User: Fold this.
Amino acid sequence: MSPPPSWPARNALDGRVAVVTGASSGIGAATARSLVAAGCCVALLGRRGDRLQAVADGTADPDRTLVVAADVSDGLDLADALDALHDRFGPADLVVAGAGVLTGAPFEDGVPAEWIEMIDVNLGGILRTAQTFARDLLATAETGRAADLFLIGALAGQVRFPGYAVYSAVEAAVAQLARALRAEYGRRGVRVHVVAPGLTDTDLGSEISHDGTARGWAEHRDAVVPMDPDDVARTVLFGAGLPPGVNLAELLVLPTRQDPHLPTRRGTGVR
Ligand SMILES: NC(=O)c1ccc[n+]([C@@H]2O[C@H](COP(=O)([O-])OP(=O)(O)OC[C@H]3O[C@@H](n4cnc5c(N)ncnc54)[C@H](OP(=O)(O)O)[C@@H]3O)[C@@H](O)[C@H]2O)c1
Assistant:
């Protein structure tokens, strides 16, 4: 009898060409570091080039990184990133759309300009990123090799989260986008995954402009021991390391102490 498989298979990600948006911080940075450690060549995208460079320099092999300052709100930036990737490492076979922002407030106090920015980054950015690299993924899948598109969503897309109505709606849209793309691309061999984390210890939320909600976010972080972004990165590597015929499609990843059905209301200003 052969021994049971261990997952992900050793060297499963060796030599793959990955793109990670939001790689200057938090979950994206952790994912980029983990992918390099697993043997991938990785393009790190985000707006802050200095932060991207610091993350790249801290990876296991900076020679297998490419830093591209790019705003996911700008399709031309992404087109330039595609060209730079092709010049350096060739077509992408693993794309992690991880760029995102969080804003919240009691709905009546919400700032529409902040909503629009969040929609444009968290949903629009994922759409632009996915479309920019779609042909690379489809071409890879045609050869029978693994081709992966990971959308980083959020628990908030699945549960009620007072004070974060617009963020929740956007994240629900991301989950549904993953299902729709999976239906379209699964039959063509591309695995589309959505990873929906709960509270994770990153910079997310640092730009919340509503005082009560910013206080509530801090209280929420105190009440729930957040996950380490490396632990979310692990789930991406696990999904990508499975055999090409298996799609770990939807991953809800929670801190053990976070009860998704009891989001905190304290300090959000929501009555
Ligand atoms: N942390 C959590 O508790 C949590 C929970 C659920 C879901 N998530 C999701 O995880 C994703 C990553 O967030 P995080 O927690 O890692 O937060 P983070 O530490 O604040 O990282 C956000 C990343 O997104 C990038 N970004 C923001 N706007 C961008 C733009 N217009 N163009 C390109 N990059 C942009 C930032 O880079 P630059 O500023 O350099 O551009 C940064 O690298 C988000 O989609 C978030 O919704 C996080």
